[in-house]
Amino acid sequence: MHAEKEIHFRDAAAKALLDPQLRANFRRAMDGLIAKRLAQFPDPRDLQDLRDLSTAIRSRSLLCLPELLEQLEASCAKNGIKVHWAETCEQANQLILGILQAKGAKTLVKGKSMVSEEMHLNAFLESKGIEALESDLGEYIIQLDGETPSHIIMPAIHKNKDQIARQFSQKIKDAKYTEDVDELTAMARKVLRQKFLDADAGLSGVNFAVAETGTLCLVENEGNGRMSTHVPPLHIAVMGLEKVVARLEDVAPLYAILTRSATGQAVSTYFNLITGPRGEGEKDGPQEVHLVILDNGRSRIYADPQLRATLRCIRCGACMNHCPVYTRVGGHAYEAVYPGPIGKILTPQMEGVGVRHDLIHGSSLCGACGEVCPVEIPIPEILVRLRREATHEDMGSTVVGKGTGRTASEDWAWRLWAGVLKRPALYRVATWFATRFGKALPASAPLIRNWTQSRTKPVPARRSLSERMRAEGVSHE
Amino acid sequence: MSSPNPSAPDSRTAILGRLRAAGDSGPLPALDTAVLERRQWDPAERVTRLRKGMEAVHTEFLDAKSDTWPAVIRVFCEREGLKNLLYGPTSEAGSALAAAWAPEGPQLKPYDRPVEAFKQELFGDIDAGFTGTVGGVAETGGLLLMPGPAEPRLMSLVPPVHIALLRASTIQDSFWSAVKALGWGRALPPNALMISGPSKTADIEQTLAYGVHGPKRLIVVLVDDLK
Ligand code: SF4
């Protein structure tokens, strides 16, 4: 299965780099986030211990994943939460549509959920005549413009307040133009409060699902998550199948490292634990709670012992905040639901390493992502592995699209390289020419051009190392 | 429509089958919780830490004693010109408040009906909500709440001001130790939560704005019941 649709991160990134406004918006935001995260970890020992513990918890959860998912399902059932399973996004969308239609729901308010972005749920529901409204302020802002999130935690980070002020004054009824952040926030509050009040159903993601107690944990600052899950009569939660952990005790360190890594907060405003629909005697809360567990390629990632680490991710976004590529080009250049380093390893594994080989190569492998990741996902190593997978069909893996990322020119270049290296005489002639005439080669020569576009052309040494060694009498053996 | 979920059993089997086929890969790594156990303070320090953590995110504190807190709340309501205060008439804190409340001035409103009969009023006419707490968290600052029949979930969410009663002696070291102390790891009510401040967002240019969806102000009435 070869790429039907080639997407070029390089082109999109080049375009983004020419947008000074975008670059300024990201630079400011990312610098702030980096500093705030650092301030939350004053003691390197505490940080390392917390990372080790969090990594161990996530690894344990993955080791027992099928058992934990079954336990979660049983605990939820006991609590009155109905669990559904979806292998694909299409199935998940249909399931949600079915649940909504069974209740005659026409409007849905949404708390933030990246999995629902993965499913393109909003567009799907709109096509079926159901209004799906984002209520997280950032998500609301981008939905008004028909955009996608540019960051998994701060979806509207690419916009500045002038842009939002203009947008609100055009798109919100009776809104006046203001650049005051408090006033802008108040406008959104007013619109959305009415929506919460009227909505037939609410949807949310899940940060952690606890198998033992059947609890869905939601982390948020705004309160829209609580509004979406407690005000409407029906609550649907969606989660990737990797989100489960064994015990509520395990959630404590994960939560502690999540908020600190994500936004540099020791604690979020709300940490909401949902263990069931409206209980006996309760006066509010939804009458029905459903949990949709989505696979969408995760079980395939799970099958590979090295790539499985991808599923430890707790979606904190720290890897993107610290990525020298992401901070310069922003989230949209990736043309993927999950941007930044985690997106670079996740998207190709979901969509195919061939179609998305642009992403696996769009990294300098500087290692910053792996260093800040709270669950120690070796993102650079996984990138290197996926680069190999993209050009090799024969690695015995389950990676989608393996071997489909080869290009003719690359193949040709490697073959030439191997041919020369295998023949010492030819190699000597080639290096002799390269050292004597390499300097004269114009920077605009084909192939070399790719490198010299944004760098100076390297000047080859006048004599190769082996020539010098021979001249200085160093033995080869 | 009999079941909204026709393909579910197959998907479930297929997903679990694939996960099982991936096989078990090695022993479970040990969990070293020393970093969590290091987080310990004496009761007075816990109060200071909680307060510092929560004040940093705009929570306001009112100091009170075991017998003065209803009066402290009343003074606050009058000073702020709140015309009413939503409370749970059957909760411990709610009934104590009602018993001490004088009929004139700010009105106590009971949350005693299903929300369906109360939604418009709740969203439109309530100035503040009053709830108890089941504890606090010293490490980061935070209140622990267990909404339920006596104190419905929306009391701490919908009114623009949330007033919460916290007894200093119930403050735990960390969320982790609170989970253990409260037995939350074994059984949880349909809803439980931690709240550290008023609702906030930084979605516009990383600029903090308070009161985006939930309460604009969080007032903690801190009862000093330490010996
Ligand atoms: S890969 Fe690590 S740093 Fe990146 S979002 Fe996931 S948990 Fe956070």
Describe the structure.
The complex is a heterodimer of chains A (477) and B (227). By secondary structure, chain A is α/β, with parallel strands linked by helices. Chain A folds into three domains: 1-40 and 316-406, no CATH class; 46-296, 3-Layer(aba) Sandwich (Rossmann fold), CATH 3.40.50.10420; 421-472, no CATH class. Chain A has helices spanning 9-17, 20-40, 44-63, 65-79, 89-102, 114-118, 121-127, 137-144, 161-171, 181-198, 224-230, 248-263, 298-302, 318-321, 326-329, 340-351, 357-361, 368-372, 379-391, 408-422, 424-437, 448-452, 465-471; strands spanning 81-86, 107-110, 131-134, 201-204, 208-210, 215-220, 234-240, 244-245, 270-274, 288-294. In chain A, strands 1-10-7-4-2-3 form a six-stranded parallel sheet, with helices on both faces. In chain A, a hairpin with a 4-residue loop joins strand 5 (208-210) and strand 6 (215-220). In chain A, helix 3 crosses helix 12 (248-263) and helix 16 (340-351) packs parallel to helix 19 (379-391). The longest helix of chain A is centred in the first third of the chain and has 21 residues, at 20-40. The radius of gyration of chain A is 26 Å and the shape is globular. Mean pLDDT of chain A is 93; it is low at 1-5. The N and C termini of chain B lie far apart (62 Å). Chain B has one domain (42-223): Rossmann fold (3-Layer(aba) Sandwich), CATH 3.40.50. Chain B is globular. In chain B, the strands form four sheets. Chain B has a four-stranded parallel sheet with strand order 1-12-7-4, with helices on both faces. Chain B is an alpha/beta fold. Helices cover 28% and strands 21% of the residues of chain B. Classes of the chains: A alpha/beta (477), B alpha/beta (227). At the A-B interface, helix 2, helix 3, helix 4, strand 1 and helix 5 of A face helix 1, helix 2, helix 6, helix 7 and strand 9 of B. The complex binds iron/sulfur cluster.
What's the architecture of chain B, going by CATH? 3-Layer(aba) Sandwich
Q: How many H/I helical runs of chain A?
A: 23
Which molecules other than protein and nucleic acid are bound? iron/sulfur cluster
Cα radius of gyration of chain B in angstroms: 21 Å
